[in-house]
């Protein structure tokens, strides 16, 4: 997308010139997956050919517009997300004395917001294209990761994330109505009901949300995913079994995809990973 970056060992991603102006955003290109990541489509096709019947499901994934914008505008790994909030919230000093100055100041405020929203829109359009590309290549469900959306207050989430998620879901459903879409946001307890308001088929719960409480707050019409703490896999097999059973029971035994929060931790004993799958696949209702 014409955003030069690198991955540096011990530091993570580095964006060389984080966009800060309308001119910078104009230089960001919409994503064409066939040109930029043809290997993703090839990998999905090979995986789909490997899956026989209902033995497995091929999953795709994309980043959500706000999370992608956060990475790009912050430039490096961030704990406070200061730069994207400055870009989104900053207002010039109020210095008007006449109507002309008032209009100019209002225009400046709109400019700040338009820069961020323009970038969010470019990522939105690009992710719609990318989801469709993955589905056409063999993905049978796609998960959208809005990992950093929970750095926003509820009112700001409704301004800077939710509308773009809705746009993605609505556009994808027009062309791929039967493609299940899953949404995950880390630390999502405070935004849980809002996460379900964009039309996704599945809301993924992180480990900060009790499965039973999450179910109550979301209702039974939407599916849930999660939410065993990956640290549990460092425990005994008996302990792992109990946690799996507890999660399944609290899910209500319907519309539930069992998984580990954000993935497996480095150093997890492989035999415990195998046990997790064996117990999960052995559950019968």
UniProtKB/TrEMBL annotation:
GO terms for biological process: porphyrin-containing compound biosynthetic process. Residues 59-75 form the Uroporphyrinogen decarboxylase (URO-D) domain. It holds the Pfam family URO-D. One of its GO terms (molecular function) is uroporphyrinogen decarboxylase activity. InterPro entries: UROD/MetE-like_sf, Uroporphyrinogen_deCOase. Transmembrane segments: none annotated. PANTHER family: METHYLTETRAHYDROFOLATE:HOMOCYSTEINE METHYLTRANSFERASE RELATED (PTHR21091), UROPORPHYRINOGEN DECARBOXYLASE (PTHR21091:SF169). This is Uroporphyrinogen decarboxylase (URO-D) domain-containing protein. It comes from Brassica campestris (Field mustard).
């Amino acid at each position: 997308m014409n955003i030069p970056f690198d991955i540096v060992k011990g530091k993570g991603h580095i964006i060389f010139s984080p966009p800060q102006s309308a001119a910078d955003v104009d230089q960001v290109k919409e994503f064409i997956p066939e040109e930029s990541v043809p290997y993703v489509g090839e990998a999905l096709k090979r995986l789909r050919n490997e899956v026989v019947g209902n033995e497995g499901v091929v999953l795709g994934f994309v980043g959500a517009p706000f999370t992608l914008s956060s990475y790009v505008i912050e430039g490096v790994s961030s704990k406070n997300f200061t730069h994207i909030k400055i870009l989104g919230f900053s207002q010039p000093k109020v210095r008007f004395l006449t109507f002309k100055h008032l209009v100019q100041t209002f225009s400046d405020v709109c400019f700040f917001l338009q820069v961020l929203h323009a970038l969010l829109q470019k990522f939105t359009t690009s992710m719609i294209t990318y989801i469709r590309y993955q589905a056409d290549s063999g993905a049978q469900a796609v998960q959208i990761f809005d990992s950093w959306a929970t750095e926003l207050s509820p009112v700001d989430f409704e301004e800077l994330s939710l509308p773009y998620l809705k746009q993605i879901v609505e556009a994808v459903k027009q062309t791929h109505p039967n493609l299940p879409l899953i949404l995950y946001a880390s630390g999502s307890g405070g935004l849980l009901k809002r996460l379900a308001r964009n039309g996704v088929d599945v809301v993924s719960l992180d480990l900060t949300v009790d499965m039973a409480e999450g179910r109550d707050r979301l209702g039974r019409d939407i599916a849930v995913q999660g939410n065993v703490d990956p640290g549990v896999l460092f425990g005994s097999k008996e302990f792992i079994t109990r946690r799996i059973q507890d999660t399944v029971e609290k899910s209500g035994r319907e519309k539930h995809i069992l998984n580990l929060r954000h993935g497996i931790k480095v150093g997890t004993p492989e035999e415990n990973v195998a046990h997790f799958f064996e117990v999960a696949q052995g559950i019968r209702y």
